[in-house]
Automatic annotation (TrEMBL):
Chain spans, region Disordered: 1-20
Keywords: Coiled coil, Cytoplasm, Inflammatory response, Methyltransferase, Nucleus, S-adenosyl-L-methionine, Transferase
EC number in record: 2.1.1.364
Family under the similarity heading: Belongs to the class V-like SAM-binding methyltransferase superfamily. SETD4 family.
One Pfam family recorded for the sequence: SET
The keyword Nucleotide-binding is annotated on this UniProt entry: no
InterPro entries according to UniProt: Rubisco_LSMT_subst-bd (IPR015353), Rubisco_LSMT_subst-bd_sf (IPR036464), SET_dom (IPR001214), SET_dom_sf (IPR046341), SET_MeTrfase (IPR016852), SETD3_SETD6_MTase (IPR050600), SETD4_SET (IPR044429)
Organism of derivation: Scytalopus superciliaris
Gene Ontology cellular component annotations, sorted alphabetically: cytosol; nucleus
Reactions the enzyme catalyzes: L-lysyl(20)-[histone H4] + S-adenosyl-L-methionine = N(6)-methyl-L-lysyl(20)-[histone H4] + S-adenosyl-L-homocysteine + H(+); N(6)-methyl-L-lysyl(20)-[histone H4] + S-adenosyl-L-methionine = N(6),N(6)-dimethyl-L-lysyl(20)-[histone H4] + S-adenosyl-L-homocysteine + H(+); L-lysyl(4)-[histone H3] + S-adenosyl-L-methionine = N(6)-methyl-L-lysyl(4)-[histone H3] + S-adenosyl-L-homocysteine + H(+); N(6)-methyl-L-lysyl(4)-[histone H3] + S-adenosyl-L-methionine = N(6),N(6)-dimethyl-L-lysyl(4)-[histone H3] + S-adenosyl-L-homocysteine + H(+)
Biased composition (Basic residues): 1-17
UniProt-recorded name of the protein: SET domain-containing protein 4
Domain of life the protein comes from: Eukaryota
Gene name linked to the record: Setd4
Compartments, record wording: Cytoplasm, Cytosol; Nucleus
Amino acid sequence: MKKSRGRTGRKRRRKHLQSPVDGVNCSHKLEYIKLKKWLKDRGFEDSSLRPAEFRETGRGLMATKALQVRDLIISLPEKCLLTTSTVLSSCLGGYIMKWRPPVSPLMALCTFLMAEKHAGEKSPWKPYLDVLPQTYTCPVCLEQDVVTLLPEPLREKAQEQRMMIHELYMSSKAFFSSLQPLFAENTGTIFTYSALEWAWCTINTRTIYMKHPQRECFSLEPDVYALAPYLDLLNHSPNVQVKAAFNEQTRSYEIWTNSPCKKYGEVFICYGPHDNQRLLLEYGFVAMDNPHSSVYVSSDTLLKYFPPLDKQRKAKLSILKDHDFLENLTFGWDGPSWRLLTALKLLSLGADEFACWRRTLLGEVISASNEEHTWNVTTKICQFLTEETQHARLQISQLKRSKENLKNHLALVEMLHLEDLKILQKSAEILCNLNMAT
């Protein structure tokens, strides 16, 4: 009897593992066993979640029972959270308190992560550090060959982010040197640029928002970070809703779901209504069929289709800049955004219509010719961006063949362009239908 139950159990399990939507349970792996024991010692009660490997999203958390709306997904005690309080109560605390000008809360957390990673077996945070990614796929970690293939607005933001980490590193060198009494090795070999990049990406991609009181030993930047072991295995979906906050009564960080989840399904949370460029920049991934996704139109692209000899061109640009109409101009799943159309309508105003520019910003129709010109230019921009996206995809496929080591990073950028292409094709369809209707 026992045997036969074991056999059917095995069969059923095998069938479950082959299901395309379910994940493969990973809770038997040593690093997760150690992490769960470490969390239990800090007061974490085992929840209805298990670490698992999913085909679409990679590592995540699986529900061991069906979850209903308003169910508590996870409750992580304060003792399990890594915050600036953790840093100040460590051997780094005294050095941070004495250092002038004061370091930022973010820098304090980065320094702690680098020091604990260096400590290896001696670190009390080792079970958590062992399950953190060793490398990240945020644009700051990508090779220049790959960054060049990103859409223009994202490419600029990636360069800005890289500069910011570089400045953070250069400005913190003296502070790192002040920590020398804590280490047998030279601090220059511990607090390296690549170590800081890893620590910064760990915090940027994984922290939960948790407001802490302002402390004099830190700079005035907001202290709103908390690393949450185990909880940070939850992946993002733009289609779920959750309620997440620190509960002052239970002294735990809690997440409640507003979206049901079936047994053995992946449990998701939502990081916010972010488009794919933001998701890639901040978290290092792309969500397919993301309802919040957009394709951005740069001001350079915008001006390609307007005569440079237009006498009012300078004034039009000045108006758009003053009213913040040169940023966040997009195509979405529902076609060109209202902001993009408004900017194009203003740029399309004839010399005799220019006096009506205020009405344009309010969304009023100025003339049939202005409307027609706007739709024509919008269609041309949509075509231009489609060709640009297709060209980028061609470059990616060529690079994939010659640079085997960049395959994973290139696949990520390719996903981003594929999503952009779908949006532009949908927008072209909408524009075509509108042109026919008018």
